[in-house]
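[audit] Reproducing an earlier prediction to check determinism. Same input, same settings, fresh worker. If the tokens differ from the archived copy the diff job will pick it up downstream; this log only records the rerun itself.
[audit] input (1447 residues):
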Amino acid sequence: MLGPQNAQDFIRALKASSDPPQVGGPLKIDIAREAWEDTRLYVPNKAEAIVEWILTRLLKDKARDRASNPVWDSRYWALLSSILVSSGADKHGDNGRAVRAWLVPLLNRVPIGPVILAYLEALSTEASFDHAQYGLVAQCITILWPLAVPKFNPETLLECFGAAVHILSVHGGPELSEDRLQILDVHRALSLTVTSYRAALSNAGSKRKQLYTLFLQKHLAGWLRLATWDSRRTGVQPPLASDVYDAGIDTIFGLDVLRPSIDQKHDPALAGALERILGTESGTVLRPLPRLFASYVRTVKRYKGALFGQGSSQSSGQVADQVQVASMAFYAVCDALARSGDAEAHWGCRVALLEVVERENLLSSKDRDAQTLLRQDGDIAVEALNVTWDDIRHSITDSAVKVLATLTRIDYDLMATSAAVILPRLIAIPATVNSALEYMNLLLEYDAKTRNLPSSVMHLSEAFSVKHLQRIPGGPKTAYEAVSTGPLTSLPFFDELSRAVHNFLTPGQVLETISDVSRTLREAFELFQECEARLSADRGDGPRKKRKKDISVSEDRTEPEYHAVSFELVARTMVVVLRSLPLHSLTEDSRLEAQSAISEVYRAVILQALQDGLLPSGPRESWHWQMIITGALRLHYGLVHVPGVQEQLPMDETLLLPTLSSMSTTDISQELIVEMTRTLLHQCSIGALTPANVLDKVLGHLEAHLPGHKTTWTGKAHTLGSQPDAAIALLHLLADRWLPYFDTWSTPEQRGRFARILTNVRLDAAIPLPQPGLSVPIVVTRMLHDAQFWELPNMRDAFIAQLTQQTAPLDELQLPELLSQSAISATHRALDDILCFVSAYEILLLTPPEYLPRSTQIELLRRGFVADVLAFAMLRHIKKSTVSARHLLVIREFLRRTIAFLGSVENVTTKDFLEYLVEHASTHSENSSAVDRDLSSVTMELIDMYQGSLVRAVRRGSAGLVADLVTRYVHSFSQTGSAAGRSAARLLLDSVVREANVTQFPLEIADALRSLAKEMLAFSIKNLPISEGLELSFDLDLLDTWSHTQTLRRWLQESVDEETPILGRSLAQRLFSWKGDKREIVNISPIILAILLGEVQTAPPAERGGRLEFVTVAYLSLLKSCERQELTPLELRMGAACRTFSAEDFGVLLELIYDSLPLRGGLGFQDVASLIRLSSIVLHDAPEGTSKICQSFVTRCLNLFADDDRFTANPELRRELIDLIVRQCNEKPASLRTADLSSLWSLIGTLLAGSPTHEHTTDSAIFHAVVNILSALVRLRRDLILNTLPHLGFVLRQLLACLRTVRPQLGAKQSRLVLDTLPRWVSASQPLSGAESKALARLLTTLTTKTMVRVHGPAAAEAQKPEALARPFSKHAAGVLIAYVAAVNDPLCFVAAAIRRELQPGLFALCDMLGEHNRDAMTVSALDAGGKATMKALWKEYEKQRYVGKG
């Protein structure tokens, strides 16, 4: 049906009372859309008419049901959006009227606010989300809102804001991610709503309280959900989420709202609203509550002037106190909400609230109500620790301890009186609760500061009393295990306790502490004795005490096991205290008194406990007596190691013999066995016992019970539950503590037994562990990595002898026979022994080769060849073999390492073994495992080593083997499927080319190599797609063969045919556009570079310049494709090629590099840095006869670098520049000339000069590089330094200034004053360390070392004598010392103690140069009072160490 044909019909249709206007006709929205799209229909102000009708329809029908509600009809919003965003209004008949001209009056007539509010509110209640419709509505809101918002009242804006909040909370998902937020805030519609509400709120005046009330009633819950989402985020908060949160804070914490709540110290409206929500959605309130509290504190601090006044009677301190009181009043409201439950969320909220109190420093010493409230929080946390052993309440326990720790940081006195109650409840907290250690460290720190450590030690011992242990369910053994895994017996806590006692216990408290500890130990043991005596009397084993019948006596029926556990735990803890006593701080009389008191502890407690437990017939079988003996032995071992105690406290012989005999008893605990062993070994060390029997017991236990690699021990004594665990502990004890004694005490037989124990361990199981802990392979591996083991001659000899004996059966097999028979028959014979051989070679891999005699190494090498063949045969021929590729890798790695250490191996390795390696070597592929790749790499290295030794032997007359190898490799290129042979051939060619030129080789080898070159060329031409139109493939084997073919032909001095294809350029161009795997680029790049470099040398002279330029460009491009650690193959190829360049080609290459170095040339910093790196490589591998060319190049480069500060300002350029100079000064110092020094000093001065800008991290490598340059010049070119000594002194002063550190908490201007004097590569947050100071000290001491000048020509070297710079530089030493004194006395910075300590040797060298006369002159003329004091202290230290010729 046709729509209206003219404007009158159109307007009449829109204003019709029915929709559709005509029965059976189109709807009004369809009529309006057709009219808008029909450009032929002219309607005056068409857009205005349609928009007015749409807005009026939306406004009137917004309350209808969803089916007939136009607000939910996308057609209305689509048409409205089309009109509002249309740019060509004239085509619709509006004659170009601006939209704003008619839209603003229209919005004044038809309010749009109710429509938007209706849509947003309805959308917030919908479960589904129509993104298309929402996008149309958001687009319309974005255009209409700025024009209509001035007419909105604050209440409407609040409702719109609330609707936006509910949309975000309902449709934001469980995590309001930034992507989800962008979807909801399409066209920034919601952001406009939030921004407008915040603006209206700031201007609301008297309506703010009304808005506050409405917000609490309707929108607080949704807003809290958004704040909850934000509390889970860890990154940067999105702007919309931040605006929503800030708008809510402005509403509930506005100035008009805060005034009455501050006066009343309570806001019942907010508290009531939060309580209502808490009843239904606890997480919604608890998670954002700490953030809400923090925002309240910040708001109160912001408005403190308006809230508390600033009259003459108000001081700044009073205002700060009022802020604290007001904040803590709101904390009380929040804390009441957090106390409403005992779930994990409630405790987490409490912790976070207290962290805000700590962070904002809200507790005032005058606020008694706040202190009472915080003490109540602490008391609740203490009550929560009643069941710390319950794993179900693990998180609550952790939070309770965090509450206590935070309260302690806020004010220690809050919970100081509860420490005696808290400690016993912490003993059984699981080790996973890290907050317990933090709390204990806080207690120790406070007691150390207040010098109250003796009482802290007593509280700690009281925590292990029987009444507290009985609270732990499960019996005494369970209690022992629980406390042993708790924080009070953990090694980190013992370390902190030891540090605190040693550093902060005063001399007057030492004797008091010893007395308290002694009394505690005696009481614990006496309680056990009483309980044991009572139990014995009840059994009839002892005298029964008569009781009076007329007196009611309540007897202690505690089990003796609890008293035994208490004694053991107290002994374990108190021994830490006794071993840490600062006896060195006592006078001699006090020290003797302390020693006597410690001896009394031994006699009264340890000796008595051991006598009762071990005599008369060995240790008692009951578990509680074994605990007593364990605690006594542990206490004894600790006492004999107390620093400053001279008495050795030897055990009586009547105790030692039962202890020794009981080590093999099966009914004693494994923990006691370990303690017995440790005690007996110590008694051997003081001569109280013969060590032979003790070592026999230990070795017997290890031989009988040492477990396999799967058994692990946690390292904690209480977990020793089996004999294998004890064996691991004994092995660890012996290897870690008693190995030097074992080397001295043991007999040859005992050393052999121990060596057999070690060599029987499979070290390949040291890496994968089922659980963390110590295993036998780990203990042995650590021992073999320790240099101490290899410095023990007896043990080392026994160990090496055992390895030699273990591999001796391999001598029975002949390598030629094995190779001829493929080791099939011998494999079955050696099947059981091969893993033993592999284990031996794996241990040999951890053996430093310097400790193996050469004869032994050769013997093991020959056996290794046999073991290699056997392992390979088993791996190849036996199905389900126990031998793996890793075992073969172990053997070959030993062969490779030993051959590399020995050097010449042509008399050890046979030709047959080499052929075996080549024949069975496999080249790895991308799908190979890491072990296979390593095996292939090691095999090729072995082949290369042997072939290299054969090539070197040619010049001594042994040419037959090399000729046979070359002939063999000729066939490798005439057959398929021998990639390993081709790889070996290429390695042989590298050795040949590297060793000498063709004229120095015999004719038969040269002829064989020509045949090989012919076959390689034919192989390459046959397989390379040289024809036009064919694409070159990145076949590594083929391209590497082609590269070596060209290299060999050049080495043979064969002329290059014109038909020889030029492949380098096309290969490089294809590589530059390669989109494949990056690893393939890294692998193929060195080969392509080698091809390009080879084609340069074969090109006509006229074309070499262009090809060198292409090579340079290609090299820069290849560098961009590789990481820094992947550049070595490229650099090796470039260096090898440069050594074969002619002087002319080398000069052309240097000119190309120099012409590209200036930054104005157009190259980027990265390319220029790569060119500088290339310069370093080229200069290092310069061909003979190019020294003058190199000198000229270096001089010009130094001048270029010195003239442009950008070379030292850019980090990438600076790094390569400094590496180039360091390498040149150290490797080729003779090439430096006097003209180079001016540029060099200028560069160094620029590097060390102050800068207004600084990098984020300190680049300490620059400091070390400058020191290396100066050290090289001082050592090797003293003749150049002599003429520029003032420059050297100036640079040394700059280096000293770099060691300063900015003082913390300086103002911005003060920090800037210091930073402007530091180089740009030094960051204020990361100053230089002692390593840099040590390097500078080494340089200063080098000034006093006599050296020879490195110059060209033997005559010049013979004419000079070693001299030092000490005397010439003595005139400038004063300036350097003045710079040091100025750095130390600078009020805005400091020189760390570690830096000063490391710098002392260098400063002493300067003092030695200076002399006393110059020192006095310098002190009088150049130093102030502080400087004189510093110089006096330095000179005093110098005098202490100066040699005066008396010894």
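[audit] rerun output stored. Observation attached for the diff report: The first helix runs from residue 7 to 14.
[audit] end
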